[in-house]
Structure formats: C-alpha cells, structure tokens
C-alpha cells in the first residue's frame, strides 16, 4: 500500500493514497480554517462557523440556522452542541454566545439589541437577511453590557 503524506507546520497526516480521507486532509491543510464537524450514524456535516447565525433548542434537538436561512437539525441538546463548538473550534468558539437555555448566537451577526422589547435582531450587512429573535429582558441586558464592555463603551 502506498502512503501519501500531507503536512502543515503542526500536523502530519499519513494516509493511504486511495483513502477517502486523503481529500479531507488536503482540504484541512489547504484552507487551515476551523470547521465544526458533526457526525451521527447516518451522516457527517461540516459547518463553517462564519455561516451560522444562531442555534436554537427544540427539546432534545438543536437547530442550526445559517445566513441563507437554511436549517440543519441535530438530534442532541443545546448543551451538547455548545460543548462540541468549544472543543472543536477552540479560540474561534468565542464568536458564539449562549443566551439563556435555548439560544446560542454568532456575535458577528448582532445588529440590534432591545432589552425592553425582548428583541434581538441578527443581520449581515453584506446579505439581505434579517433574523428577529426573542430572548428574556435580563439575558439581553447582560448581552448588551457584555458587548459594551468589549467595545469600551
């Protein structure tokens, strides 16, 4: 069996040349961008963190909403999703903020926070999509205070 070697500064992948994983390893080396990889019995899903707007809880399911308004449902709860994000994305996981029991948001998409109306508007200035979410007044006050402290306001 011939082996192919794919390397980066920190990692070396040694795989059979005809392995289906060779393409995946090359892809990781080529872009060096972190992706969230979620696998189940039936499928493997690769998610670019910059395309996730928010993640909601629906009982024992997590629903990931993307910038193009598509959704992907996973059969585990929001806490499990949070731990996957933290473990796989490491420093890049800081872009995600847990709000209450049922919501994780990508802070890059925050457009407007209005605690008195319990309204959180998520948007991307480069796209024509606006997502209006509802969260508790207290959670939104804390989010607003956190963001003000980050921006030195």
Write a structural description.
By secondary structure, the chain is α+β, with helices and mostly antiparallel strands. Helix content is 24%, strand content 38%. It has 3 helices and 12 strands, in the order ββαβββββαβββββα. The protein has helices at residues 21-31, 78-89, 137-150, and strands at 3-7, 12-16, 36-39, 44-47, 52-58, 61-66, 71-74, 96-99, 103-106, 110-114, 119-123, 130-134. The strands form 4 sheets. A 5-stranded antiparallel β-sheet has the order 7-6-5-9-8, with helices on both faces. A 3-stranded antiparallel β-sheet has the order 10-11-12, with helices on one face. 15% of the residues are buried.
In short:
The protein has 153 residues and is α+β, with helices and mostly antiparallel strands. Helices cover 24% and strands 38% of the residues.
Topology of helices and strands:
Blueprint: E1 3-7, E2 12-16, H1 21-31, E3 36-39, E4 44-47, E5 52-58, E6 61-66, E7 71-74, H2 78-89, E8 96-99, E9 103-106, E10 110-114, E11 119-123, E12 130-134, H3 137-150
Antiparallel strand pairs: 1-2, 3-4, 5-6, 5-9, 6-7, 8-9, 10-11, 11-12
């Amino acid at each position: 069996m011939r082996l192919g070697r794919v390397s980066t500064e920190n990692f070396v992948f040694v795989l059979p040349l005809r392995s289906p994983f060779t393409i995946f390893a090359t892809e990781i080396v080529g872009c060096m961008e972190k992706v969230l990889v979620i696998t189940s019995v039936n499928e493997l899903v690769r998610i670019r963190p910059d395309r996730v707007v928010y993640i909601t809880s629906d009982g024992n399911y997590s629903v990931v909403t993307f910038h193009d308004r598509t959704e992907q449902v996973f059969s585990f709860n929001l806490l499990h999703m949070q731990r996957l994000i933290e473990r796989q994305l490491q420093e890049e996981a800081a872009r995600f903020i847990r709000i209450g029991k049922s919501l994780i948001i990508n802070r890059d998409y925050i457009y407007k926070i209005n605690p008195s109306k319990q309204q959180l508007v998520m948007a991307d200035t480069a796209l024509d999509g606006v997502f209006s979410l509802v969260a508790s007044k207290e959670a939104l006050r804390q989010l607003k205070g956190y963001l003000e402290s980050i921006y030195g306001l």
